[in-house]
Amino acid sequence: MLSFKSLIDEIENNIHKILDELSVSDISFSVEPAKPGFGDASSNVSFLLAKQLKKNPKEIADMLSAKFEKSQNTLVSRVESHPSGYLNFFADWEKLNQLILSESNLDEFGSVDLGKNSTMIVEHTSVNPNKALHIGHIRNIIIGDTIARILKKSNFKVNVLNYVDDSGLQVADIIVGFRHFNFPLQPPLGKKFDHYCGDDVYVETTEKYEQDPSLDEIRKNILKELEDGTSETAQFADKITRQVLENQLETCWNLGVFYDCLNFESQIIRSGLWRKIFEKLKEMFLVEFETEGKNEGCWVIRGDNNEEDKVIVRSNGTATYIAKDIPYAAWKLGLLEDPFNYQKYEKIQPGNHVLWQTTLASSNEPKQNFTAEKVITVIDSRQARLQKIITTLMSKFKSANDAYVHLGYESVTLSADTAQTLGLNTDGKQAQMSGRKGLYVNADSVYDLLKNKTMEETKKRHSEMSDDEIKKIAHIVSVGTLRYEMIKQDLDKIITFDMTKSLSLEGDTASYIQYTHARASRIIEKSQRCPSIDVDFSLLTDASELDLVKTIGLFDSNVMNAAQNLSPKVVARYCHDLAVSFNSFYEHVKVLDLGDRKLENSRLCLVNSFKLTLKKALDLLGIVAPDKM
RNA sequence: GGACUCGUAGCACAGUCUGGAUAGUGCGAGCGGCUUCGAACCGCUAGGUCGAGGGAUCGAAGCCCUCCGAGCCCUCCA
């Protein structure tokens, strides 16, 4: 890949050669894009040599820069030894412009080969199918989807899975509601079925438990019946959860999130995978039977150092929650024989991206393979302890100890103001969402709110547009805004969601970034020319132009960083950097009506490179780059 | 009590993995910029003992230790 990294590589190679001449080795110096005002790339190598050579960094920098001037340089035009001791390098911009701008016109620009075409599973979403998705689930979904996109760009063969937890207590609760409290199967007019199940059936049913503890018996019985697939209750529950799942998927698809396969917990339970993995655990002495103490009669996994033992099989012989995750994790890594058949999901995903689902029944479709060498499971960090147990177990089953990765993230909480609008006074503190208490902001309503807002904004600017066109743009901007809010900060920072502040369209937002793309598109459109890379690159000399080229050239480095660290925000920040750089360029130099066609063409080439690169970078975030907005 | 995470400007966050120059961005505040390729924009100003203390280092927001504050987990719940 030819990009800014070519310059960095050249500098690194030449420094290495100089160090060899000096017979110095084992120095892991860095060469990085320079801060503004310090050239184009900088190295700290003189600091690291200071001790060995017993000279101060500045003397070493002087010596190195003199030697560097004599080495084979094609992309470096000049070296400077800064009084601080840094070596600052200045690029030959005519060559670098050509290199970066030509490369940026290729489809695979920004791709890196971290994965070497190896297989990878990204599992995300994994929500109980008893309610609509809320803003907390959306964080999970967007992180997972973005990671999958970044890993694909990094040459991993990625399969995206959604684990549908359709046999747990939460599902039992709405079944109790339908069966014992006679909630009608039809939602009120105009309400989606998933909203109805979550807002009404689930919340009101759990309320009743509090008033009448004797209902617990009913709940347990329902749960038991769910595990037996042949029971009438289980088949009824299957109908209900399938309908909720379909509604949840509609929400995901609307946000540009797609899957490769749906795995159902109920099927994993009925598949017998648990018995197999339990035998294996026993053979490997990873579980122990407790004959005394508080866990008497249970099978447990011993806790590390100070941690408590974890019960995985109760004294009555039933498996606990974590136990269900163990066979699934092993299945994902291909450690167990696959008991499933596969069929296509009933509804077609937008874009015709095929969606499979597991089944225990026979199927006319060929057997699929969704297992992978590495697995990333996106689950919020409140489950870190359980996930750690799974990770440890998997590392004992499979020699590679990073084969199973729990990608954790902090939760989404509600701001005091937003909690208040939902009827909860928190004394100015943020509040945890709760499905059971009905305290959440659901994803569909956030999207609707954003869409109305963006439609108004778009109308203001484009009185000439048809309603259809305005809706299309509003959709793109709303989805972008929501997605960007969910990944622009680090995974281990809590997001405090506020109905008004989080939906801003100004500042560090998706719409700011999308706007620059629209600006670039308009310039190209107005030029009435097809941008070409057959231009005079030496004409691009303004600081704002070179800065933009440089930022474009850093695309692949950012993709690599994001993929290595499983950090979607790296790409988000890169998109923002690109937009800032373009806006600065836009203010500083004009592209059209210069009366100098050669210069116009050079700048058009730059504008087009920016546009192509931003589009690719936004695509990694699942954000669409509009030509008008 | 133990595990994990966080603490950087009034607020929300980058930068910490991989130590080096002048600690960045957005919101908010103050001022300025559309007869000009789109103002969902741009420029300028003010605002910081990088939670506290100690240590190793020529050099710390970053590494190590201790402490303080916040969150979260620690069920034969899921």
Structure description:
It is a single chain. This protein is an alpha/beta fold. The chain folds into 4 domains: 4-91, Gyrase A, domain 2, CATH 3.30.1360.70; 124-271 and 339-370, 3-Layer(aba) Sandwich (Rossmann fold), CATH 3.40.50.620; 416-503, no CATH class; 510-620, Isoleucyl-tRNA Synthetase, Domain 1 (Orthogonal Bundle), CATH 1.10.730.10. Helix content is 50%, strand content 11%. The protein has 21 helices and 17 strands. The protein has helices at 4-21, 45-53, 57-70, 93-103, 135-153, 169-180, 193-211, 215-227, 232-254, 265-271, 273-283, 321-332, 384-397, 416-421, 443-461, 467-487, 510-527, 543-553, 555-565, 568-588, 597-620; strands at residues 31-33, 41-43, 76-81, 87-91, 118-123, 156-164, 261-264, 288-289, 299-301, 310-313, 341-344, 356-359, 374-378, 404-407, 412-414, 431-432, 495-497. It has a 7-stranded mixed beta sheet with strand order 11-12-7-6-5-13-14. Strand 1 (31-33) and strand 2 form a beta hairpin. Helix 8 (215-227) crosses helix 9 (232-254), helix 18 runs antiparallel to helix 20 (568-588) and helix 20 (568-588) packs antiparallel against helix 21 (597-620). The longest helix is centred in the last third of the chain and has 24 residues, at 597-620. The chain is globular, with a radius of gyration of 29 Å. The mean pLDDT is 94. The protein binds one RNA strand of 78 nucleotides through helix 2, strand 10, helix 12, helix 13 and helix 15.
